[in-house]
Give the backbone structure.
Amino acid sequence: MKALILAAAGLALLATEAQAISRYNSTSMSCDRVRATVRSEGAVLLRWRGKSGVQRYGRFVLDGRFCSAGERAEISYVPTKDRQSCPVRECKYWDPDDDFLWLWDR
């Protein structure tokens, strides 16, 4: 039975289409436009130039459904045309044990 479930899961992964992710320059868009784009597409790549002139980029998501296992969506900030810090969500590594540290404080 276990082998059947694993085989079905493998076939399901093969049957899904690879989805391209859109790329945008965050500093050419308003904060509202960046947030609306993430909301409509679910996940996007945003790029911008840092203060030192180095090209920066990141993958920003609507919510945790667009993160890999072991990650969760957390608030992050990107510069936009109208704001220095526009709040968006980014997938970050998450260790569930970190949320339960209070159990060992006794």
Q: What stands out?
A: Residues 77 and 101 are 27 Å apart (CA to CA).
